[in-house]
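Journal club side-thread
Mid-discussion, someone asked how the predicted structure for our own chain would compare to the paper's figures. Pasting it here so we can look after the session.
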Amino acid sequence: MAVNPNWARWVFASLGEHLKKVATQVKVPVLIEGFDERTSSLMQAADRVEIRITGPYCQPVSKDFYRLFVDANVLLVSRYGNDAKNAFDVLNLAGLYQEALGQTISVYNYGNKPGDYTGLPSTLVHVGCLRLSPGKSVQVTHFGQVDRVDKIKHTEVQASYTMELTT
């Protein structure tokens, strides 16, 4: 049997949902690249989160057994003006994402196609789990101030995952 054509949707939606919750809980505007719109209010927010997901890349291991690889990248954007903004805000947010990306992430049948989760508990299917790839860790990179005029700072938190599935 071949790769399940639903895996890409389910992985993207599950990982996106997991990461979006972090920003939502601390009331920071969030964008999932490819899903959400870049509104002017998002772009002008004092802090914002941009989530990018790459993959899954599917590697056949043996008959009906696959290994999936996924990368998650969270860009934290913090705008400093003449106000008394706390420089630690973006670092606190980076810590929350470092924790979230270090967790095992459950993949469910999220989407809008037949057979996907409809909101009824009986339709929710646990597909598998994304785990940090062997030998990898969650990386935090501070780019500092990237725009002198607008005083914008960037921090990135990223991780690579592996998931094993059978068909």
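Post-session note: The longest strand covers residues 47-62.
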